[in-house]
Design goal:
Blueprint: H1 4-8, H2 13-26, H3 29-35, E1 37-40, H4 46-55, E2 61-63, H5 68-81, E3 89-92, H6 105-110, H7 114-129, E4 135-136, H8 160-175, E5 188-192, H9 211-218, H10 220-227, E6 232-235, E7 239-240, E8 243-244, H11 249-259, E9 265-267, H12 275-279, H13 285-295, E10 300-301, H14 305-315, H15 321-337, H16 354-368, E11 370-374, E12 388-392, H17 418-426, E13 431-435, H18 449-458, E14 461-467, H19 488-496, E15 502-507, E16 523-526, H20 534-542, E17 622-629, E18 633-634, E19 639-648, E20 654-664, E21 675-684, E22 689-697, E23 703-704, E24 710-711, E25 715-722, E26 729-735
Parallel strand pairs: 1-2, 1-10, 2-3, 3-4, 5-6, 6-9, 12-13, 12-14, 14-15, 15-16, 18-26
Antiparallel strand pairs: 7-8, 11-16, 17-19, 19-22, 20-21, 20-25, 23-24, 25-26
Helix pairs in contact: 2-15, 3-14, 3-15, 4-5, 7-8, 7-16, 8-10, 13-14, 16-20, 17-20
Bound molecules: 1-deoxynojirimycin (NOJ).
Amino acid sequence: MNSAREESTIVSRQDVEDRIRALLDGMSLEEKVGQLNLVQCTGPHVVEDLAPDIRAGRIGSILNVEDRDAINALQYIAVNESRHGIPLLIGRDVIHGYHTIAPLPLGQAASFNPAVVRDCARVAAQEASAFGINWTFAPMIDIARDPRWGRIAESFGEDPFLTGQLGTAMIHGFQISEDNGADTLIACAKHFAGYGASEAGRDYNTTNVPLNELRNVYLPPFQAARAAGVGTFMTSFSDIDGIPATASDFLLKTVLREEWGFEGAVVSDWDAIHQLCVHGLCENDVEATHLSADAGVDIDMVSAAYQQHMPELIANGRMSIARLDELAGNVLRTKILGGLMDRDVTSPPDEPPRMAALTKVREAAEQSLVLLRNEQNILPLNAAHIERLAVIGPLADEPVEQLGTWIFDGDAARSVTPLSALKSMLDGDVAVDYVRALETSRSRDRGGFDDALNAAGAADAVVLFLGEESILSGEAHCRADITLPGVQADLVRRLRTTGKPLIGVILAGRPLAMGDIIEHFDALIYAWHPGSMGGPAIADTLFGRCVPSGKLPVSFPTMSGQVPIYYGHKQTGRPATPETVIHIDDIPAGAEQTSLGMTAFHLDAGYQPLFPFGFGLSYTTFHYSDLSINHHDIPMGGSVVVEASVTNSGDRSGTEIVQLYIRDRFGSLTRPVRELKGFKRVHLEPGETRKVSFRLHTDDLAFYGRNGQFAAEPGAFDVWVSASSVGGLHAVFSISG
Ligand code: NOJ
C-alpha cells in the first residue's frame, strides 16, 4: 500500500475487502445499484424529497445540497434508518476554497509551491467538512494548453510535471489531516482524460489526442494522483479518438485499473452516461448504461440511467451480478478508505477559525502574483514619493469578481478588494482617487474615460485594474478572442497619453493576449483571480511589503491566433529561429512565394510567446552561475546530480523559483524541445548565494516510446538550470546504451 490515504487508515487491506464482501452479501440488487446512484437535489424540501430513497438504499451519494442541516439530516437517515447504515458520499465542487477562497488553481500554480497548494486545500477541506461535505470534485489536473478554454482557470497550466506535483499536493491537502479525518474531503482526479485538449478551446468539444501525447502529456498527472492516493476519479465529457471517455475501456480498464491498480470509485461527469447517446455512440440509455458499466464507471452522476436500466440489464443477462458487485464494491471501498464508515458522519466538526484561513489564502495570493513587466524598476511604489494615487478600473473594487470561477459557497463578505486594501494601507499618507471608468470588464461605454483621465492627470502614479470578470472563464465560458474584453485596451491607450506612470494589474481566469498594449504599461502584475485576500496581497506587492515571486504556469500568447502555444512543443523539421522569421510588413510587394528556407512561424506573430512558461520578474535580480554535473555519462538506472549557484544580485531579499529542464535529443519518437523536471523555491538575502541541487534518475527521463513501453532511451540529453523555460545554464550528459 503506497498511497497516503491507504497508509493513514487503521484497518488492514484484508479487513476492508472482508467488510465489502459482507456488505455486498447482505445487499439487494436495488441497494447495490443504489450505491452507484449520485443525485442532486436542491430547494427547501430536499430532506422530504430524498428521505424515502435514502432510507430504501436507492441513493449512494448526493451533490449540491446546500443546507448544512439538510445534509446532516440526510446523512443521519442513511446511517441510522437504512438497512445497512452506509453513509452517503456528499459531493460538492470545492475547487479553490469553500467560504474562504484561495487564488484560482491556475494562480496557485504560479507559486510553484506545493506547500501553498496543500495548505489552501486543507483550509477548504476544513471549512467544507464542517458543513457535512465529504467529497470534492477536485483537483482538476487536465493539461491546459489553450487559453481560449475557460477551464484553464481551474487547471495548474500547461505542464505535466508541475500539474502532477501540485495535483498531489492538493490531494494531500484535501485528504490528510492530523485528527481522525473528520475534517477531510475525499478528492477526485478529473477529468479522465484529455478534456483539456477540447478542440479550439471550446468546452465539451471533441478531442483528438494521439496515444503518444495522451501517454506522455495528458495521463502523467493522473498517474501521479493515483500514486498520491486520490479517492476517486471523474471521467471526462469528451470524445477522445472516437470514444467518449465515459465509455472508454482503454482509459478506465486498461490504464486506470489494470496498469495503475486503482480500486476506488470512478464517477461519470454530469449526465455523461446519458450523453453517450447524444455523442452518437449508442441509441438509448440502456446501451449507455451497458457501455459505461462495462468500461468501469462506478457512479452515475445524475443521469439516473444506472438506476433505471441496470436491473433490466442484469435480468436479461447482459450484465452479471459479479460486475455489479465490482462497481458497488469500488464505491464501498471508497467510503471505507475515506473513513466514512468509522466515524460519526452525522455530526461534522466545527467551522475552523476564519483568521487562520484568511492568512493561508493571503499567503497563496502573494505567491501567485506574477510580475511581467517593470520598466525602470517603477515598482515597488514608494509611499513617501507619492501624494496622489489614481486607482482606475472595473476590477479594483469587486469583492465577487476577484474570487473567480467555481465559488458556489464563497463568502464575498470575506473579500478584501485591492481598493480597500490600498486605502487602508495608505491611510493619511497618500490620497487615493478611485474611478471605475467602465461598468464591467466587457463594457463598451467610454463615458467614464474622462473622469479616469482627470484622475490620472492629477496623480503621481496610476494603478489600473483590468482583466476579466469571473464569469468570463470557467466551465462553458470559453472565448475565441482572448484579448482584454470590451474597450479596456482603449482605456490603457488613453491613459498612456497622460504620461503618468501606468501600472497594470490584471485579474483574469486565463492568460490574456496583450501583445498590442503591453508596451503601454510601465509595470504589469498578473494577479489571476486572487481570491478573498487578493486585495492585501496586491497592495503589499505594489508598495514593496511583499516581493513578487510567481512564475507563469502557462505560456502567454502575443495574440489569440497563436494558441495553442506552449514551451514543451516538438522541434519540427523546420524549427524557427529569430533569423528565419519574416514579418508580414517586411515582405516586398509582388514577392514570389517560396518555401525554401522557411520555418515554423506566423507572419504576424513569429513563433515565440509574449511571456514564456516559467517567466516572472522580482524586485531584485538573480544571477545563475557555476553549473556542474557530476557525470557526463550514466548507465541505465543511474542518476546525475545537476547543481548551480544562484545569487541575489539586487538589493532586496527575494525568492527565486529555480527550474530544471531537459531535452532528450533523439528518441524513438520525437521529444519535446524542453521538459520541466524539477523546481525549487529559494529565498535569498541581497548578496547571498545558494547552491541549488537536482538529482535526475534515468527513470525521470523515461517516456512512452515507439514500442509503447515506458522507458528511458540511451543517448544525449541537454539539461538547463534556468529562471524560465527560455535560456539558462546548459550542460549535456548521456545515458549509455
Ligand atoms: C460538470 C463539471 O465538468 C465537473 O467538473 C463538475 O465537478 C461537475 N459538473 C459537478 O458539478
